[in-house]
Amino acid sequence: MQFGGLCAVNDFSIELKPGELVGLIGPNGAGKTTVFNMITGSLKPTSGRVLWLEEDVAGLPPHYVAARGIARTFQNIRLFGDMTVLENVMVSFHFRLRSSFWEAMTGLPGYGREERRIRKDALEFLEEMGLLHLANEKASSLAYGQQRRLEIARALATRPKLLLLDEPAAGMNPPETRELAELVRELRTKYDLTILLIEHDMKFVMGLCGRIQVLDYGITIATGSPAEIQCNPDVIRAYLGGEGDGQCLR
Amino acid sequence: MKNRNLILNILGISALFGVLRLFEAYGSEYQVRILDNMGVFITLAVSYNLVVGVCGQLHLGPNAFITIGAYTSALLTMSPAEKQMSFIITPLVWPLNVLHAPFALSLVAGGVMAALFAFLISFPVFRVRGDYLAIVTLGFGEVVRVLANALQSVTNGPLGLKGLPPRTNLWWSWGIAVLTTLLVVKLINSSYGRAMKAIREDETAAKAMGIDPFRHLVLAFMVSAFFSGVSGGLLAHLITTISPTLFTFFLTFNLLMIIVVGGLGSTTGAIVGAVLFTWGSEALRVVESDMNFGLFTIPGIPGMRMVLFSLILLLVIIFARHGVMGRGEITWNRIASGWGALAGRKSA
Ligand SMILES: Nc1ncnc2c1ncn2[C@@H]1O[C@H](COP(=O)(O)OP(=O)(O)O)[C@@H](O)[C@H]1O
Ligand SMILES: [Mg+2]
């Protein structure tokens, strides 16, 4: 991926098997979010392909990619701030709506049934993420950790097969982070998800992911199991500079 | 709860029409005229708010849709003989010169033409966002005005159309206002409306949740244009004379003022704004006439009302950015809980 003269991500390749939980780590500005943007269609890679279920989705519009089963959360939280928590989740059901806008506008009973079902399902996602008691609050009024969880609830509600989490634990305190790790593990089994996540909290990543890929300046410098990554000299150098020799990340 | 609201809606609308009936029977011609205007402006404000307030797109060309609706509807209700007499310089093209339709049908045709035009321009308009969208829509508003001037064989050019049947009355103007409000509110509260608000709040996130912004913006744009077009037909048959100078950017500015003062994104706000505006522009007429203070007289200054309106707009933007209603709505539930709280306090 090239931004003018800057090559943000170069020669990147990753393969995800169904049900895998993979971590993408690397220092700030390494190009991790750019990878997410390329997968979800927010950015069209200058070259290369994004193969998803035997289709090249590179450069397709984001809403199309989302409808194909790839959902994401955002590093810089992007909720629909002036809408309620419940509405935020209900938005994710819209692209599957059967009723035409005529039916919605004239309030035909068929639409009414669909609306009630959406509301019920959305409330279940909120309950799952522990946000049920906040359903009628404005999204922007939520605490930081709650906003991060709402982002996940909203992404889950699109019923994805692949979930991309961009720094889901950023800004959370240690107990919240532990809870989140537990939650991610549960969601993966419950919804049969494949998960790719970006995170700086090493304990979180190492404890959760079966496989980790490390980016630095847009180049993959290591991939492997948490144990392999933790003591990989290239990775240590990328994170700690020269003085990290012989240490391990933890 | 649902049934209660339905009953209250029916009661409220019946009460409204009861009041209108009283004005029709006992009100002065002047009062009726203000009420006619009020109904039309409610329709205009509610439909304009759908694009600007709900979808968050600063569209500055509603006057284009109003013009198209007004001309379409007027050309249909004028009889072929009248049209032949009006179009003295360049004759009216076929088939417009022979078409003749009842008022109701002409209003629908005005709405449909405006919606078609909205569809056509939506491709350039929704390619851009923000300031650019504002400029492009402003441009289309001007283009339509210029076309109304230039296409003499359709619009009769600067001469305009005169002597239209005065068909717009309280029932038409308020009937359509009520219908538009009910439909637009249903749309806003539906899944489609949620998608539109999501686009307003964060378009990137909306797309990531599977929403196609273009599709939903075009939808809102066309619905809005349809009702603006219908209002154009109502205005034409209220004023009975239309010309290209009638629907300029000035009209758009007034609509923008109405929805900003009412609270962008709030339908009840748009209604409150429209009522205040139409009533206010009459009430403030005094500032344009000579004012006699006994010892001295201040001569009336034409256009003073607009200065006052602009001042009010400025004050609202500076001190109450969210308008009268913010994005909130007056609903029966709110009224009921407010009433309950009041009654509770009394009994305590
Ligand atoms: N849309 C963009 N336009 C230009 N440069 C960008 C854009 N997005 C990201 N970059 C640049 O690409 C590099 C990688 O950014 P990013 O993927 O956000 O890093 P990370 O998520 O790993 O911290 C940074 O140098 C950033 O400034
Ligand atoms: Mg990032």
In short:
The complex is a heterodimer of chains A (250) and B (348). Chain A is α/β, with parallel strands linked by helices and 250 residues long.
Question: Can you walk me through this structure?
Answer:
The complex is a heterodimer of chains A (250) and B (348). With 250 residues, chain A is of the alpha/beta class. Chain A folds into two domains: 1-69 and 160-250, P-loop containing nucleotide triphosphate hydrolases (Rossmann fold, 3-Layer(aba) Sandwich), CATH 3.40.50; 81-155, no CATH class. Helices cover 39% and strands 15% of the residues of chain A. Chain A contains ten helices and ten strands. Chain A has helices spanning 32-39, 62-67, 85-91, 101-106, 109-128, 144-156, 174-191, 202-208, 226-230, 233-240; strands at residues 2-3, 6-7, 21-25, 51-52, 55-56, 70-72, 162-166, 194-198, 211-216, 219-224. In chain A, the strands form three sheets. In chain A, strands 6-7-8-3-9-10 form a six-stranded mixed beta sheet, with helices on both faces. In chain A, helix 3 packs across helix 5 (109-128) and helix 3 packs parallel to helix 6 (144-156). Chain B is mainly alpha-helical. Chain B has one domain (2-289, 299-336): Orthogonal Bundle (ABC transporter involved in vitamin B12 uptake, BtuC). Helices cover 71% and strands 1% of the residues of chain B. Chain B is built from 15 helices and two strands. Chain B has a two-stranded antiparallel sheet with strand order 1-2. In chain B, strand 1 and strand 2 (297-298) form a beta hairpin. In chain B, helix 3 (62-77) crosses helix 11 (213-239), helix 5 (103-125) runs antiparallel to helix 11 (213-239) and helix 8 (170-188) runs antiparallel to helix 11. The radius of gyration of chain B is 21 Å and the shape is globular. Chains A and B meet through helix 2, helix 3, helix 4 and helix 5 of A and helix 8, helix 9, helix 10 and helix 11 of B. Residues 32-33, 75 of chain A line the site of magnesium ion (MG).
